[in-house]
Amino acid sequence: MIVVATAVALALGAGYWAGTRHGAPAGGEAERGTPAAQAPGSGRQILYYRNPMGLPDTSPVPKKDSMGMDYIPVYADDRPTDEGVVAVSPARVQTLGVKTVLAGLRPLDAALRASGRVEVDERAQVVIAPRFEGWIERLHVSAVGDPVRRGQPLFTVYSPDLQSAGDELRIAERLQRDSAASDPVAGEAAQRLAEATRARLRNLEVAGQGAARQTFHAPADGVVLEKNAVQGARFMPGEALFRIADLSRVWVIAEVFEHDLGRVEVGQQASVTLDAFPGRRFEAKVAYLYPTLNAATRSTPVRLELDNRDGLLRPGMFAQVELAGGGGARLTVPTSAVIDDGDRQVVLVALGEGRFKPQAVRLGERGREFVEVLEGLAEGERVVVSANFLIDSESRLKAALSNLGDAEEAAAERYGAAGSFEAYDAAAGSVTLSHGEIPALQWPAMTMDFGLAAPGLIEGLAPGTPVRFEFEQRAPGEFVVTRIERAEPDGHHGH
């Protein structure tokens, strides 16, 4: 009796196991339990749920697809892969001479450079142009470039106009004296004539009582830049005979391109270098930013003022201007840390233990030694500043080999299962198969449609025939049977 009872119990247990094993495809799938991540006490945070067939579809809550399959949870603590990371042995790091620095906040020496020329200070120029006609009788300064002092004689002229005005003044003054007592009316007229003549001489800027010969003096210290006066030559009213400029202070006019205008302001410090004095810098300040733009060169003139008491700077000299960059501390790395291939800018982040990862960055302003990093790095990250090209080359080789390996793995990504052949749709080129669980894809036992690589694969199969088959995933949601064969009747339960 004990043997019989034991046999009955085993038979009932086997029947219960078979029913739970094969009952799911018949309609029990919709009643399956929630995913494991939803079980009490899991302690893992779920970010979202992804489609089990690899389709680009996610859900914030648990759900099933059209075939009753549970969406797969994606956890917050899933660790990313070390894709692109290259490992270098400590010995090789020492051999390559790898050096690293920390990305940090520092003032950026983002100097703005422009070309310019030395010019005369327009406010320190004077022109000597007599307001009357005459002849130059004598030159006291006879050459361009001669230095002159304020009050120094320049040239002496003779003018018939001045002689006539002087005679007229003397006659009016004598008539005024002679008729002051005998004829008040004539005396008053002579007085008005004398005053008018004096005013005329003052307007002609003539010294004295209208002498026919006048000597012109330098109105300021400076250098003779132009001299049109020739001894014995006649000159006309308003003709510029001398131009004198004070060169103790000069201008540098620099052309700043349109896209750099926002970095220039009045009072900004600058330094000037000249080909004539290599290695020497002249300090200057931005005095004026001109309000016009040259449409041909897309640049605007900027005026800088320089002290030139030693006379080294000469008008017309070519100059290189460097304007100091402003702004506070910015996240920067040394310029040697950046690998720029024209399409992207990359730095190598040192992860420790000989591991380095290429990191794309977006750069801002560049200085002499450092460059601003706008995106891609955080303060305190360590970057490679020497031997980075060698490490980057090794990293790219690894990435290429990794991509090759991924392609080979993708080409060989096939799955096997056991089940039964149900139907074939010639129009759609698909086959309906029932199969057991496929753990590699987290699929439960079900009946579903597959693509068929070739119609000849199912030749001789009738609905209900137990089969073993292989299939591959060619695209998200696209699974194609590449091999199928008959199986023993009990093979229907395998996988």
CATH topology of the largest domain: OB fold (Dihydrolipoamide Acetyltransferase, E2P)
Please indicate the percent range of residues in DSSP E strands (runs of 2 or more): 35-45%
Radius of gyration: 49 Å
**Residue share in helix:** 10-25%
| Unreliable residue runs | 1-40, 403-409, 491-495
What does this structure look like?
This protein has 495 residues and is an alpha+beta fold. It folds into five domains: 2-75, no CATH class; 86-110 and 329-408, conserved putative lor/sdh protein from methanococcus maripaludis s2 fold (Beta Barrel); 122-245, OB fold (Dihydrolipoamide Acetyltransferase, E2P); 247-323, Elongation Factor Tu (Ef-tu), domain 3 (Beta Barrel), CATH 2.40.30.170; 413-493, Copper binding periplasmic protein CusF (OB fold (Dihydrolipoamide Acetyltransferase, E2P)). 18% of the residues lie in helices and 37% in strands. It has five helices and 32 strands. The strands form eight sheets. A six-stranded antiparallel barrel has the order 7-16-19-18-17-20. A five-stranded mixed β-barrel has the order 28-29-30-32-31. Helix 3 (160-178) runs antiparallel to helix 4. It starts with a helix and ends in a 9-residue tail after the last strand. Residues 126-245 form the CusB-like barrel-sandwich hybrid domain. One of its GO terms (cellular component) is outer membrane-bounded periplasmic space. Residues 249-325 form the CusB-like beta-barrel domain. Keywords: Ion transport, Signal, Transport. Residues 331-391 form the CzcB-like C-terminal circularly permuted SH3-like domain.
